[in-house]
Amino acid sequence: MRLTILGGGGFRVPLVHRALLEDARRGAPGRCTELVLHDTDSARMRVIAAVLEARAAGVPGAPSVRMTGDLDDAVRGADFVFSAIRVGGTAGRVLDERVPLAEGVLGQETVGAGGVLYGLRTVPVALRIAERIAELAPEAWVINFTNPAGLVTEAMSAALGERVIGICDSPVGLVRRAARAAGADPERVGYDYVGLNHLGWLRGLSVDGRELLPGLLADDGALASFEEGKLFGARWLRALGALPNEYLHYYYFRRETLASVREAAQTRGEFLDRQQGDFFTGATAELHRASELWERARLRREETYMAESRAASGGWERDSCDLEGGGYDRVAVALMRAIAGDESTRLILNVPNGTTVPALAPETIVETVCDVSAKGAHPVPCAPLREDQLGLMLQLKAVERATIEAALRPGSDAALRALALHPLVDSPAVAARILERAGH
Questions:
Q1: Mean pLDDT throughout 346-373?
Q2: Under a CB-based contact definition with an 8 Å cutoff, are residues 176 and 217 in contact?
Q3: Burial of 239 (0-12, 13-18, 19+ CB in 10 A)
Q4: What span, in angstroms and rounded, lies between the C-alpha atoms of 54 and 84?
Q5: At what angle do helices 113-136 and 89-102 cross, to 10 degrees?
């Protein structure tokens, strides 16, 4: 089976490869035998290929690795395509974060004005890629990692329909942490999760039909033992009656998170831009040490993840079990395995809404629990959303759809609408200045 990774020079590609090696060690049926890396930056791609080569040494059945700078060559004949591109690189992310901050509103890769700016830049490229895949590999399944994941998946679905599925590691991380805090095996729990990408809620957690969430919400000690409990606090979580995705901290505690981001010496984008620049420079000079240097940089990246939100909620270090990295890579490989081998599984994914949220159109992309088989991913029925949850979803979906429209129709008023309607942007005048500063 051939897997192509678009953005093959990306820093997190070795995490996907790690999951592929786990399949190889187990001799999993239908596993990946050929991995094709595609990137517009050949130097970065060579470094990542060196990391993969070192990690595959001595692993029987490890997939062969091939590099190409030609998109058509990369996707032609692929069974699966992982899209993990970053249009504009980390330098683009720096601008997406700094431009809004200069206007006094949150700048973040996927949330707020930063997410809209990133979407405007990414959607046209993602759609062109989707169109080439539809033409050259119409039977391929596309798994989208590219942020903002829900928005980009929805844009790509115009060309690929249900053959593009978006993934994120935040929901699976939340489920695992909540299960451990409730004293349950994460592999055995059932769960009810629904929302949009980086805007969802865990509303049910059960083992053998026994609901665990009310007991967890009532236990201050248990809530203080994991990431989301520390971020949001026991009182607010009990008021919500659910466990929010960690990115909802930017919405529920907007004043505190904005203050923390503005007080920080550097944005997350600036940290990653410098760190990844140093890594690729060092690894290029010492290619034989690429794997060692990558692991060191990866650990530091995980330790500093969402540092501003943790600072805004009192300051604390991430648990060791959250530092191994990945999550999204294992979701992607589990998704690929289920489709290729028809091994039915249940995952939280970004897929067409259907009837999951009646207030949204069937073709819009939502993030929810899905049953996956060779026929693809299909949402399972879920309980109705509370008014506050639905309200946020509807407003953010309007922002996403306006962003897609603006990306495909430059110069229209859709970009202003996308920014000004975002709940983290407090004025159309501010939105207009952000667009002007960003060159739109």
A1: 97
A2: no
A3: exposed
A4: 22
A5: 150
Question: What is the SS3 assignment for 424?
Answer: coil
| 292-327 tens-digit pLDDT | 999 999 988 888 766 566 556 555 354 544 445 457
State the residue for tokens 């922002």. 399
Nearest to 186 by CA among 174, 175, 171: 175
Integer Cα distance of 305 and 115 in angstroms: 17
- Region 383-402: what's the mean pLDDT? 97
Residue 323 confidence (pLDDT) = 41
Length of the chain: 440
For residue 1 the two structure tokens come to 């089976």
Q: How far is residue 172's CA from residue 194's CA, in Å, rounded to a whole number? A: 12
Contacts of 313 (CB under 8 A, 6+ apart): 230, 231, 232, 233, 249, 253, 256
Q: What is the mean pLDDT of residues 205-232?
A: 96
* Cis check: omega of the bond before 148, within 30 degrees of 0: yes
Global pTM value: 0.94
User: How many Å apart are CA 120 and CA 431, to the nearest integer?
Assistant: 14
Strand spans (E) along 186-329 = 190-196, 199-207, 210-211, 243-244
Summarize pLDDT for 51-75 with one digit per residue, the tens. Answer: 999 999 999 999 999 999 999 999 9
Of the candidates 348, 376, 375, 353, which has an alpha carbon nearest to the alpha carbon of residue 366? 353
Spatial separation of the C-alpha atoms in residues 121 and 116, rounded to whole Å? 9
Residue with tokens 């993030």: 367
Contact predicate 134/78, CB 8 Å: no
pLDDT above 60: residue 266: yes
SS3 412: coil
Beta-strand pair 141-144/80-83: parallel
CA dist 109 and 111 (Å) reads 6
DSSP letter (8 states) at residue 147 = S
Q: Which two tokens stand for residue 392?
A: 């946020």
CA-closest candidate to residue 4, choices 91, 62, 64: 64
